[in-house]
Structures are given as structure tokens and as C-alpha cells.
Amino acid sequence: MGAQLRVYKRRIQAVTATKKITKAMEMIAASRIVKAQRKVTASMPYATELTRAVTAVATGSNTKHPLTTEAEAPARAAVLLLTSDRGLAGGYSSNAIKAAERLRERLAAEGKEVDTYIVGRKGVAYYGFRERKVSESWTGFTDSPQYSDAKKIAEPLIASIQKDTAEGGVDELHIVFTEFVSMMTQNAVDGRMLPLSLDEVAEEDTGKGEILPLFDFEPSAEDVLDALLPRYVESRIYNALLQAAASEHAARRRAMKSATDNAGDLIKSLSRLANAARQAEITQEISEIVGGAGALADASAGSDK
Asked: Is 2 a residue whose pLDDT tops 70?
């Protein structure tokens, strides 16, 4: 009984230490969510005005730009997948990977080859374990991305869509990330960034699908698009990185809260078992004492005779 009680006590100590760690991680993640939300909100005005500018140039001119013109028969697409660098975030990365797999299957069904670009060690490890080709990957900043990170990611993607498919270029650019809805809800979503769907952007911008006014551009509409569209891609990627970071922190907070609650329940269960073992040990000791006393009494009675 004594050995069993010591086992329970050691397990209680180990679970208590784990509970302290998960509680600390929960509090850290909760504090980082607020910062990430603020960054998402701060990035929205720039992205909105940049979208308006791109839409004005594209709809206000007759220029056929490779970043706004649909390919007649798209044969190749690039998919940017955003995952996390660290674990202990529940199903955050796995949900994003599943969404990317569904997108990949859909594009393959349309007869398109897929080039995969990955952000985050979890996604890199998933594709590496399965020996799947990854065009390029980035790690080390998923929990606190900067605009410079988005710019670094956007460069090879823009370069690939500007190339001809025969030279290794792509016709479409898609992104898969986890959209932050609330502290309790984060959804893995996918969307096409390029070519830019002008009808959808214009309708979203005006709210009524109104035709934007015409403009004169200097030096030319094509040069303006050359300058604006890379910034548009960077802003879209940066916003996705910020939303993914907020989602990661929210998922980690929820996972750590669940782990903390489970640790508390386990401690209660182990405490009950330890109490039962202690009571059994005390009962056994009392029984041994009573038995010993009875044996002594019987021995004394026999000697008197």
C-alpha cells in the first residue's frame, strides 16, 4: 500500500507541474491575441485603399496586364500555405493543411499543376515527411509576422506569375490561411489572389457594383499596375499572416485551457485514489495492531493457566 501511495503522489506532482506550464502558456497566448488583433485592424485601411487604387487603374484603362488578365487555358497554379512554427495549438496547422489538400485536389481536377509554397515549420515537416516537392518555404516568424516577411514571400510568387508557364511560371496564385473570426472561431480558408477578379473587387469596393470613373495615367496604366499590383499582393499576404498569427494564438490559448482543465480533473482523480490508498493503508495498520494485541492477550491468558 505504501508503494502505491508514493506512486500516486509522484503522479500528482508531475501533473501539477504540467498544469502550471499549460496555464502559463494559456495566459501568454491570450495576451498575444490582443496584439495580433490590433495589427490586423491597423493593416486594413492600407489594404482597402490599395485595392481601390488597383481597381481604379485596371477598370479605368484598357490595358491588358498579366496580373489582371485571365489565361485562356490556365495550366499551372501556385498555392501559398500558411501554418505555424510551433505546436501545442490544437488542430490549427492540420486544418490549414487539410484545406490546402482540398484546394490541391480541386485544381488537379481542373487539369492544373500545382506549385506549393509554405510558411511555417509544421507545413514544411508535413510535406517533407511525405517527400512532396515544395517550391520554397519560410519559417521563424509565424507568431509575430512583419511586413518585411510578407514582402519576402511575395517576391518569388510575383516573379512566378510574371513568367510564362513554359519557363516554370504559373497562371494563378492561391493562398490558404486561417481566418480569425473570434476568440473561439477560426476557419481555414482559401482564396485566389491573382489574377485579380476586377468585377468582384469593384462590387466589394462600391457595394453596388458601380462603374468606377475613368482616369488618365502617367507614365502609363501598365506602369502603374506594375508598381501597384506587387504592393497589393504583399498587403494581401501580410493581412493573411496577421490573421493566421491571431488564429494561432487563439487556438493555442484554447488548447492550453483544455489541457489545464484536464490536468485539474486528473489531479482530482489521482487525489481520490491516493486518499483511498492512504485509508486502506491506515485500515491495514489498525487491523495489524488489533490482531497483534489480540495475539498478545491470548498468549498472556495461556501463560496464566
From this structure: no
